[in-house]
Amino acid sequence: AARSRPPPRRAARSRRRPEGKVACGAGPGAMPGRGALCLGLLLPVLLGCGSAQPGVCPALCECSEPARTVKCVNRNLTAVPPDLPPYVRSLFITGNPLTDLPAGAFPAQRLPDLASLNLSGNHLRTIEAGSLALPALRQLDLSGNALVSFSPQAFGEGGSPLEELALRGAVRDHGVLPSLAALLQSGALRNLSRLELADNGLLLLPAGMFTALPALRQLDLSNNSLVGLRNVSFQGLGQLQSLNLSDNSLGVLWNSTLAQFRSLPALRHIILGRNTWVCDCAIEDLVAWLKESDQVEGKEALTCASPDKMLGKALLKINGLDLNCSVPTDLPSQLQTSYVFLGIVLALIGAIFLLVLYLNRKGIKKWMHNIRDACRDHMEGYHYRYEINADPRLTNLSSNSDV
């Protein structure tokens, strides 16, 4: 019985080493490859912990990873920080002496989720091709800059998902208008739903500037110096809901423009306040449209700016007797009619003159013969006097005869 009991030291040793447990020690009884095996198991864990660390915030910016927001406001930046964290969704770089956006300024691979980009209040002058080619960009604010060059390929070759573009006060240099119009007409911004072009001092807009924006819903052209919309086409803007034309220099809206407004079924908010309406007979179509349309907001407040006798009069209260139609509305056609009438009158006078000459042809012929005879007698008298003065033999005779 005593021999069948196990030694106590062996039982204790077996309890310290549970079944399935591997020790990473390097004691005298350890296996030779056990340390290498443990290092191989720990290396992926260490690498995984290193890759899970969040992106580092640029030194001159403020970052909020929970809000996925980075703000670099009034930091005297002259270039876009190259180490923006990849989690950023809303980026504010404002109030800096930033002058140029080169290609790849915002790498698409490093910023895949950047959806809202605010670059207002900088000193941006040049936006190069490919500088804004971001796959998730929805909102872009470039207001308060002084743009001189805006590449039509700024958003890349394949188009952009951009939905809102703010250019308030950014295109005061009207030399940038052709490139901006080329960008809008290229079809790269077909998803654009809001476009703001206020405070730019625009006089005229390039023809067909908005024709490739089928998703546009809000268009702000307020606080410019627009004098007319004859070359502006709103065709194709079937989803346009709001059009702000306030604080411009519009004197009249012609019937072609009014017909375009009528053809847009979703357009229900047109703002025309604080314009210089000229209340002569050319404004008659605009007044009739205002009275029948429900598209214009605050149309009761629209008043005449000229002539003096109509100053301050509400457009809705104008009737045909109030309009000054002494100046023809279509001056070229009036001049053409006048020239035709003048030609007819001159032709009639010429025909009458020829008829009178024909009826008095005998008297005119006799009168012409009399004039011819009188001229001939007069010339013979001059010829006779010349012969007498030229002959010395007849000089004394003519002198005696004169005495």
UniProtKB/TrEMBL annotation:
Region Disordered: start-end pairs: 1-26
Keyword Chloroplast: no
Compositionally skewed regions (Basic residues) per UniProt: 1-18
InterPro entries: Cys-rich_flank_reg_C, Leu-rich_rpt, Leu-rich_rpt_typical-subtyp, LRR_dom_sf, LRRNT, Wnt_signaling_inhibitor
Annotated PROSITE patterns: LRR
Domain LRRCT: 275-326
GO cellular component, one term: plasma membrane
Keywords assigned by UniProt, alphabetized: Leucine-rich repeat, Membrane, Repeat, Signal, Transmembrane, Transmembrane helix
Transmembrane segments: 339-359
Start and end residues of each LRRNT domain: 56-90
Gene Ontology biological process terms, A to Z: negative regulation of canonical Wnt signaling pathway
Protein name in UniProt: TPBG protein
Organism of origin: Chloropsis hardwickii
